[in-house]
Amino acid sequence: MLVFKGARVLALRMGVLRRQSLDIDCNLREEVLEEGTREELRARLEGLIEKALAEYFERQEVVRFKLEAVRVKAHPKQHLHGWDAFKVKLNVSDSAQRSVRNLPKLEIDIAYPEELTENSMADLETEGGRVTAYTIERQVAEKLRAFLTSLPQYRTKIRRDGGGDNRPEPIRVKDIFDIACVERDHPIGDQVDFWGIVLSEFTIACKSRYVDCAGLESFEQDIGRTTKSYRNDPTYEAEVPFEEAWDVIQRVCKYMEKHEILPLSFEVPIPEKPECGDG
């Protein structure tokens, strides 16, 4: 039912990644939406997650953790464009910390499906078995898009159409860092097939969330704040200096122009208003 993505998946795909994350990121698979109502999907997810985690804990050589409760709820802030899905809350007790009560609940956001291709996802072996997860190419495409969504143009575009809010958005410099780390292993000039897939996936990913891209000028919005935010993180700057990371972004944009996929521009549809009684 789920396809996994994010920093943890990227680290597993690459064997090593300089930035790790405790978050577990995933999307519903598109075909799942045809298998029942929203409430039926919620209940099914809740049952399957509870079963999978309970069995996993019991299989450990030393059983330390116990699953106390699983709650899957429809995302509390329903997005006007329907991009939210479910929030999972897990209560887990730790036998090594019996004196500690009320351990923090673990949370997982399950996002609404996006258009995927045969190059977007593949099997991924994990300690607990096998899952479906984004490929490295799709991850790079998503990170290029995610950076753009944190910049003023996109925030204004979505807010104007009723789908955003007025809270300041941190610039996602972590995505620039991750892209630069991938490029070290997959140089743009050498791995034509790899970056060809990235560009194709980027186009699809942007279309899914109405993200426009004119080229480097789109990435350079608020470049001063981007530079400051990146350099203020000692981990990023020490591992991949900002000049190197931004050079990768510039070369990616040149690669896009060379292959004539730019500009990308998508009109935001007007969401249908709920009928009386639908909330």
Considering DSSP H and I runs of 4 or more, what fraction of the residues is helical?
40-55%
List SSEs in N-to-C order.
Answer: EHEHEEEEEHHHHHHHH
CATH class of the largest domain: Alpha Beta
Largest sheet: 5 strands, mixed
Mean pLDDT: 86
Shape: globular
Low-confidence stretches: 160-165, 274-279
Structural class: alpha+beta
What's the architecture of the largest domain, going by CATH? Roll
Q: Tell me the CATH topology of the largest domain.
A: Nuclear Transport Factor 2, Chain: A
Number of strands: 7
Number of domains: 2
Distance between the termini: 27 Å
Instruction: Please give the count of helices.
Output: 10
> In percent, how much strand structure appears in the residues?
15-25%
In what order do the strands lie side by side in the largest sheet? 1-2-5-4-3
Rg over CA atoms, rounded to whole Å, is: 20 Å
Give a description of the structure:
This protein is α+β, with helices and mostly antiparallel strands. It folds into 2 domains: 2-134, Nuclear Transport Factor 2, Chain: A (Roll), CATH 3.10.450; 136-258, no CATH class. It has 10 helices and 7 strands.
Can you give keywords for this protein?
disordered C terminus; single chain; globular; 279 residues; Nuclear Transport Factor 2, Chain: A; two-stranded antiparallel ribbon; alpha+beta
